[in-house]
Amino acid sequence: MQNSVVALGGGGGGAKPLQSLAVGVRSSLYTTNPNPNPNRMAAPKWAQKTITLPPQRRGCHLITPKILKEIGQDLSEFKCGLAHLFLHHTSASLTINENYDSDVRDDTETFLNNIVPEGRSAPWKHTLEGPDDMPAHIKSSMFGCALTIPITNGQLNMGTWQGIWLCEHRDSPTARKVVVTLNGI
Amino acid sequence: MQNSVVALGGGGGGAKPLQSLAVGVRSSLYTTNPNPNPNRMAAPKWAQKTITLPPQRRGCHLITPKILKEIGQDLSEFKCGLAHLFLHHTSASLTINENYDSDVRDDTETFLNNIVPEGRSAPWKHTLEGPDDMPAHIKSSMFGCALTIPITNGQLNMGTWQGIWLCEHRDSPTARKVVVTLNGI
Amino acid sequence: MQNSVVALGGGGGGAKPLQSLAVGVRSSLYTTNPNPNPNRMAAPKWAQKTITLPPQRRGCHLITPKILKEIGQDLSEFKCGLAHLFLHHTSASLTINENYDSDVRDDTETFLNNIVPEGRSAPWKHTLEGPDDMPAHIKSSMFGCALTIPITNGQLNMGTWQGIWLCEHRDSPTARKVVVTLNGI
Cross-referenced Gene3D superfamilies, in alphabetical order (chains A, B, C) (predicted)? Predict the structure, then answer.
């Protein structure tokens, strides 16, 4: 099992940076089929928790460190699997994008505000919850409220420049809940 | 196992509203690793079916009740897992958004129609299937054709105000197929 | 197990076209719960690999055949499951859309270029990587970098007209990595 996983990880192991994963290497097929050799047993595992993210100002925010702080210990128990993040709200969104230059997050917020009319110019019928509410709902469906990320050797297997963003679309910051579900072997 | 799940569900159990889930509670890690103690055995389960949604007019429609009517019985057998919905079409979409005020659905349809040009003003080459067809394809990729939702204590674990929407982007209503896949313990 | 799966597939089996799947048939619930009857054992399997897609020009490209060439053999070992594709980049995207008329892909690229300002007219602060970079990041979050597709009888269970698209949002073609994770029974 260990060897198969290392092969899958391109000889990397949990410690090596994920971008060094061997490319195009056909993975072994893992199975939980009862097997006389205990070293080849893989036990499917599930973990699920609800995380609360602190209130953030309207805009796009890099939350990878916050997420890893909450699930890093559970992640380390998975050699291969999937991590699912589900935001419990309809006026914010989750997306994966650039993790380095904060200007990318500011420009993305600029784009969203330019493309979704707000205030007097807006054609919305749903205005009771404030001028920023209907635009927030639209932005939430544009980017979506859920992410699924592969797990490899106990880590989220993302690209070098990828990060997890929480996009807050309301003017009044509020805490946001994310249900994280981990599944793998 | 029961206790672990209840802990994960914040003492809620299937009956309590999901928004009352304990927040930030580290979940137990479930495993199917053969175990002498049967109370700690968790059996991974898969269920899959194809649902047909009746024809609906162009616009956004709340379909949570229709989906739950089809999969509620299967859902009840999962303590922890994921539900995947996959729309078999390229001129409609699935999204999660506000489940209360139907104006939010109408305003979202207004936004989509304002942002994707249709008819004489549109630059499309693909027009053989009607003026509403190419805009429908674009809207389908904007919102997407698939959803993954966590399952907790036999229920879809969505936020208080979240609902599942089918967005019909064609003028002529047609029945739409959704492949639902449930996986969990 | 075979019978359950055939029932799930509407009597189809791997050979029959997926669009002929029986509709609304309640699926059997599969389990890996140890069982005296080996024919009813289902063994959860995981497979994961990193695929490199060759450089492609800016625009939308149908990559279903490339993906199936890489994972078809692994797919054939799954009766029921999910296939997850995760693009390792923030300036390209994955989406599911029309697999027949290439005009649909050209028109989608036209839409993206019309909706996301580029060059002198653009309000972006992030310009160091070229005028096409910030628009590429925005398009990546609009369509997303990941797909989850059901697996039925050893095949991707997509609609008749659905295909997997890689949308390249940069001017300079570069190879793109996709982490594919298969999970099922």
Answer: YjbQ-like
Q: Do A43 and B32 touch (CB under 8 A)?
A: yes
Distance CA A77, CA A2 (A): 13
Nearest-angstrom CA–CA distance, A181 and A87: 12
Domains contained in chain B, CATH given: 45-119+127-184 (2.60.120.460)
Task: Tell me whether C124 touches chain A (CB under 8 Å).
Answer: yes
pLDDT per residue as tens digits for the range B36-79: 444 444 688 999 999 999 999 999 999 999 999 999 999 999 99
A149 and chain B in contact, CB less than 8 A:
no
What's the pTM? 0.85
Measured CA to CA, the distance from residue A178 to residue B23 in angstroms comes to 9
Q: What subunits touch chain A, counting only 3 or more CB pairs under 8 A? A: B, C
Q: Do C159 and B90 touch (CB under 8 A)?
A: yes
Residue B128 CB neighbours (<10 A): 9
CB contact, 8 Å: A144 with chain B? yes
**pLDDT, tens only, C171-184:** 999 999 999 999 99
**Higher pLDDT among residues B49 and A11, named by residue:** B49
What 3-state class would DSSP assign to C98?
strand
One-character DSSP codes across A109-143: HHHHHHHS--GGG---S--TT-TTHHHHHHHHHHH
CA dist., res. C56 & res. C139, Å (int): 16
Would the CB atoms of B147 and A146 count as touching at under 8 Å? yes
Return phi, psi of residue C72, to 5°: -55, -40
